């Protein structure tokens, strides 16, 4: 290959295009299309072109120093834990963390968009993936996961499925500035953010397929209570809530009542929950102890593989709430769009609709525990578990009304291309890339 050939090959995927692809891998193709004002079809074409370029030239000459395997695994751990906490993973935060890790472990480190895209795919970190349970974790996290599974197997024997539960929070963020603007109100509601959430949804599902009432924490303390609250929802409103207080409310209002309903003669239970925002206080531990319930705290970074709610239900529920918001916020009168009480009423209605669908799908809930390996009887190999997870997500989205018409075709195409890109990188361990942050290239027109 002559020196003149390489620039021509690389010009097919400019820095601007790589930047869009990275955004799509971090936040989804639809978000990338909206952010960069490019049609989704164009972004999908760039993804296909990226695949072909890397097939032809999988090992471009590197002219700088890049993260090695140990450093990349540290960065992958960071991405996984950020997402578990609903904190942003984007170009800025990823490059900042990569640079920090690179300097601390290996000295000089230069950022490249192509390296970043390769990194996200190599470690199966695309938000498109519907097969997270099939993908390996960074070595240290994988070891922690193995120990956790051993803990579950040792303590879950002969415990009734009705007393094996998973609990998790979904935080809903509301951007008041965007909400008050004339345009883009559909972007005001998010499930990723750094500030205080507008609402917290505490979901609880049981290994026997049932779903317990969802506790909704609203911080709009001055707003009048909604006129109608679905029976599947318990609402608490106050201006300031701490993480410990949220879990204490959940323990008292949801778990204690469930345990009492099953009577004192029941054997002890197990509660699967993450280690980030639960902060098991003495009050929570007291409630769990009185209900003979053992907390099984998921190691950091493992939730996408072992948390039954994360396997299928949470991602579908978030997508459903986003879609309902985008559909209905356009019809809001300008004088009511910023009324927190009115918005809460809508959120509770949408959430109630989704909970009814999930509650009427006990087999899907049971399968979530199986695929997450919380209870014995999983399909077997990682590939089979991945197939099962993919089927479950598609089934729930169909039940929630997400896969219809054009949206169904678009979603399938996006996911298929992301999975194809991930398969391209399976087995690679070295990071290669090229540099390029020139303003003229970032500003050039793309076809």
Automatic annotation (TrEMBL):
Residues 59-129 form the HTH CENPB-type domain. Gene3D superfamilies: Homeodomain-like. Keywords: DNA-binding. SMART domains: CENPB. It comes from the Eukaryota. One of its GO terms (molecular function) is DNA binding. InterPro entries: CenT-Element_Derived (IPR050863), DDE_SF_endonuclease_dom (IPR004875), Homeodomain-like_sf (IPR009057), HTH_CenpB_DNA-bd_dom (IPR006600). One of its GO terms (cellular component) is nucleus. Transmembrane segments: none annotated. PANTHER family: POGO TRANSPOSABLE ELEMENT WITH KRAB DOMAIN, TRANSPOSON. This is POGZ protein. It comes from Origma solitaria. The lineage of its organism: Eukaryota, Metazoa, Chordata, Craniata, Vertebrata.
């Amino acid at each position: 290959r002559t020196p003149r050939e390489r620039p021509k090959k690389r010009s097919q995927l400019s820095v601007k295009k790589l930047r869009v692809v990275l955004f799509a891998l971090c936040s989804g193709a639809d978000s990338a299309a909206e952010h960069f004002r490019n049609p989704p079809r164009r972004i999908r074409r760039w993804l296909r072109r990226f695949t072909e370029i890397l097939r032809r030239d999988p090992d471009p000459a590197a002219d700088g120093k890049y993260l090695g395997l140990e450093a990349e695994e540290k960065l992958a751990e960071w991405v996984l834990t950020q997402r578990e906490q609903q904190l942003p993973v984007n170009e800025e935060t990823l490059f900042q963390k990569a640079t920090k890790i690179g300097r601390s472990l290996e000295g000089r480190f230069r950022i490249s968009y192509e390296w970043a895209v390769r990194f996200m795919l190599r470690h199966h970190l695309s938000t498109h993936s519907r097969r997270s349970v099939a993908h390996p974790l960074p070595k240290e996290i994988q070891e922690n996961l193995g120990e956790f599974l051993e803990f579950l197997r040792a303590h879950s024997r002969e415990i009734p499925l009705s007393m094996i539960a998973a609990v998790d929070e979904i935080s809903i963020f509301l951007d008041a500035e965007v909400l008050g603007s004339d345009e883009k109100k559909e972007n005001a509601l998010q499930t990723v953010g750094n500030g205080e959430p507008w609402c917290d949804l505490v979901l609880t599902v049981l290994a026997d397929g049932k779903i317990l009432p969802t506790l909704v924490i609203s911080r709009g303390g001055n707003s009048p209570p909604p006129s109608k609250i679905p029976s599947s929802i318990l609402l608490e409103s106050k201006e300031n809530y701490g993480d410990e207080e949220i879990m204490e409310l959940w323990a008292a209002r949801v778990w204690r009542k469930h345990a009492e309903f099953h009577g004192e003669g029941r054997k002890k239970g197990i509660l699967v929950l993450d280690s980030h925002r639960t902060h098991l206080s003495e009050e929570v531990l007291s409630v769990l102890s009185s209900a003979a319930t053992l907390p099984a705290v998921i190691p950091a970074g493992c939730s996408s593989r072992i948390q039954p709610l994360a396997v299928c239900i949470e991602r579908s529920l978030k997508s459903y709430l986003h879609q309902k918001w985008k559909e209905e916020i356009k019809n809001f009168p300008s004088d009511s769009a910023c009324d927190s009480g009115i918005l809460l009423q809508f959120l509770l209605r949408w959430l109630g609709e989704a909970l009814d669908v999930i509650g009427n799908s006990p087999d899907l809930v049971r399968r979530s525990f199986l695929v997450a390996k919380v209870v014995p009887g999983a399909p077997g190999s990682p590939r089979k578990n991945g197939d099962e997870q993919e089927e479950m997500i598609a089934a729930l989205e169909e039940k929630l009304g997400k896969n219809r018409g054009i949206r169904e075709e678009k979603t399938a195409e996006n996911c298929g291309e992301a999975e194809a890109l991930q398969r391209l990188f399976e087995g690679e361990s070295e990071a290669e890339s090229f540099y390029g942050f020139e303003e003229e290239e970032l500003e050039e027109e793309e076809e």
